[in-house]
């Protein structure tokens, strides 16, 4: 039982990284109807920025700074590469984001070098005792930070003028325009938010193990998370991310004993297996809007 | 005064929809713009509210003047800030948002006077106040129309462009919309009312324009338009006995039939 709970906490910790990334995907998707494949690059850029800044500013100041920095980067990318494409087929824009991902990652790789870079987090792999369970401090930190960020984000979308404008524009762009909402502002804000969230997710992905040139692959697990939660649901992104994390962690702990015939490291593919299952049963995800097409 | 001078609008670089439209909406008045489907009424409103871009439309000639200043080419947000708000055809409320959230989006450009405008809108529509926490998608058609009008009023507009507010509403609700237009005007907002329901529109308007295939073909004080039998018959599709009978429609129907066969 103790093992299951510990595995659960690890899953929730990793899941909160996926959740933050998934939130970025969903925010951009809702605002622009485009899946931004640039998220992995922003994530790794955030982690690398923290690793460089932490030495001078300390870790706790480096994280918000890096988030702002990457948000600014995302803002610039949106302005230069995405805004001119407004009105073009979303498929084209999605391919452009793939290109952005590659370009940003190549540049960022120059700042990583060939070795693993530590992000300078104070937790490392050290354990803490919570109710008799030995869990890593970083899982707890991830989960708490994510909880705070998600609450802030939901408050933003519910109570602030810009948050409401973003929801309105996501629902009906033309009508939002007619109310005086600048859709360009909505695009920019969505990219900036996605960039900032990805940067924090990247930092957490780097805690304990550091970042190298392949860390970005973690961001791909946010894709199953948004498919599970539903592409256009913020709540779904959070729950999808956590669910993917937990499933992955449980499989990692128990698959070797319970189903050794699945081979080693089956946990790595479980997010995608879960995604396939959900796609078969609810193609629009657990909380997504079913697309009704009238013919 | 909101004024349109010799306006020409082209969609997709090829489709000429407005061919030299001129129209004046004096401050404080109610002006009715009538015409059949496809006459270009909605396009004219889009030109006034800056929404042509969304539909790949472009003003190729002429100008739109707000108090003597050219405003065509401004973005919708800038026009809303200058006091021109549009209620689009078909209500177009944000169905996922609550009633109050819808209204708050309407106040996006007028954040400072948001609370005050909210009181005013709730004063006009007590029903919306009752339903403020409801998700607006579940409101009835009439309530959604009220919400759409209220949302536009949240920006505190001086000029309100109403696109077919009576569309699809029961006769008693049409009367309510009519009274509403009068009340909004009495509170100091100029109204440009685009309608298919000509009798309703002309009964409240000071001045009426009739559009046909992208041109203004008739421009008279509303009372005169309302009294003229010929106009009723040929432009508003209302026969003397109130039956809907338009020669143009018959002709159009014939033409289409030939085309299809």
From TrEMBL, chain A:
Entry's Gene Ontology molecular function annotations: transmembrane transporter activity
Lipid bilayer topology: Multi-pass membrane protein
Any single Gene Ontology cellular-component annotation: plasma membrane
Location(s), subcellular: Cell membrane
Highest taxon of source: Bacteria
Keywords, ordered alphabetically: Amino-acid transport, Cell membrane, Membrane, Transmembrane, Transmembrane helix, Transport
Keyword set includes DNA-binding: no
Keyword match Transport: yes
InterPro entries hit by this protein: ABC_transp_permease (IPR001851), BCAA_transport_permease (IPR052157)
Pfam families in alphabetical order: BPD_transp_2
TM region(s), chain numbering: 12-29, 59-77, 89-112, 139-159, 180-205, 225-247, 259-281
GO BP term, pick one: amino acid transport
Family named by the database record: Belongs to the binding-protein-dependent transport system permease family. LivHM subfamily.
Name listed for the protein in its UniProt record: Branched-chain amino acid transport system permease protein
Organism, as annotated: Planomonospora venezuelensis
UniProtKB/TrEMBL annotation, chain B:
This protein's UniProt keywords: Amino-acid transport, ATP-binding, Nucleotide-binding, Transport
GO molecular function, one term: branched-chain amino acid transmembrane transporter activity
Stored Pfam families: ABC_tran (PF00005)
PROSITE patterns, per the entry: ABC_TRANSPORTER_1, ABC_TRANSPORTER_2
Entry-linked CDD domains: ABC_TM1139_LivF_branched
Any one biological process term the GO annotation gives: L-amino acid transport
Sequence similarity: Belongs to the ABC transporter superfamily.
Name of the protein this chain belongs to: Branched-chain amino acid transport system ATP-binding protein
Originating species: Planomonospora venezuelensis
């Amino acid at each position: 039982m103790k093992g299951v709970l510990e595995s659960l906490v690890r899953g929730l910790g990793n899941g909160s990284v996926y959740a933050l990334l998934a939130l970025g995907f969903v925010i951009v998707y809702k605002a622009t109807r485009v899946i931004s494949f640039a998220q992995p690059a922003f994530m790794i850029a955030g982690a690398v920025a923290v690793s460089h800044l932490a030495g001078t500013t300390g870790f706790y100041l480096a994280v918000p700074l890096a988030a702002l920095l990457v948000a600014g980067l995302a803002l610039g990318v949106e302005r230069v590469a995405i805004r001119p494409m407004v009105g073009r087929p979303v498929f084209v824009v999605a391919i452009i984001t793939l290109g952005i991902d590659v370009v940003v990652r190549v540049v960022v790789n120059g700042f990583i070098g060939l070795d693993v870079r530590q992000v300078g987090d104070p937790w490392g792999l050290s354990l803490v005792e919570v109710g008799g369970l030995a869990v890593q401090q970083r899982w707890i930190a991830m989960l708490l930070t994510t909880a705070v960020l998600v609450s802030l984000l939901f408050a933003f979308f519910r109570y602030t003028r810009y948050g409401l404008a973003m929801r309105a524009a996501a629902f009906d762009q033309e009508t939002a325009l007619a109310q005086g909402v600048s859709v360009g502002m909505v695009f920019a804000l969505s990219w900036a938010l996605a960039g900032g969230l990805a940067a924090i997710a990247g930092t957490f992905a780097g805690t304990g193990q550091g970042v190298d040139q392949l860390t970005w692959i973690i961001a791909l697990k946010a894709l199953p998370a948004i498919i599970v939660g539903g592409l256009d649901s913020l709540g779904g992104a959070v729950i999808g991310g956590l669910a993917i994390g937990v499933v992955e962690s449980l499989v990692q702990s128990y698959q070797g004993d319970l189903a050794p015939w699945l081979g080693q490291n089956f946990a790595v593919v479980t997010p995608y297996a879960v995604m396939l299952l959900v796609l078969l049963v609810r193609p629009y995800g657990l909380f997504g809007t079913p697309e009704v097409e009238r013919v | 005064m909101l004024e349109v001078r010799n306006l020409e609008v082209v969609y997709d670089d090829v489709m000429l929809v407005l061919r030299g439209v001129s129209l004046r909406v004096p401050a404080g008045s109610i002006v009715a713009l009538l015409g059949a489907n496809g006459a270009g009424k909605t396009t004219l409103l889009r030109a006034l509210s800056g929404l042509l871009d969304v539909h790949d439309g472009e003003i190729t000639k002429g100008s739109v003047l707000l108090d003597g200043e050219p405003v065509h080419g401004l973005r919708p947000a800038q026009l809303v800030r200058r006091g021109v708000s549009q209620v689009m055809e078909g209500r177009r409320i944000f169905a996922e948002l609550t009633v109050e959230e819808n209204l708050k989006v309407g106040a996006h450009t007028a954040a400072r006077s948001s609370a005050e405008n909210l009181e005013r809108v709730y004063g006009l529509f007590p029903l919306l106040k009752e339903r403020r926490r409801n998700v607006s998608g579940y409101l009835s058609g009439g309530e959604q129309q009220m919400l759409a009008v209220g949302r536009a009023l949240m920006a505190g507009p001086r000029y309100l462009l109403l696109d077919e507010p009576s569309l699809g509403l029961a006769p008693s609700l049409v009367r309510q919309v009519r009274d509403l237009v009068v009340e909004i005007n009495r509170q100091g907002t100029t109204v440009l009312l685009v309608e298919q329901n000509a009798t309703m529109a002309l009964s409240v308007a000071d001045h009426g324009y009739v559009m046909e295939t992208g041109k203004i073909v008739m421009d008279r004080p509303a009372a005169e338009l309302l009294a003229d039998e010929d106009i009723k018959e040929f432009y508003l599709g209302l026969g003397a006995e109130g039956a809907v009978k338009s020669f143009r429609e018959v002709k159009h129907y014939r033409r289409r039939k030939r085309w299809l066969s």
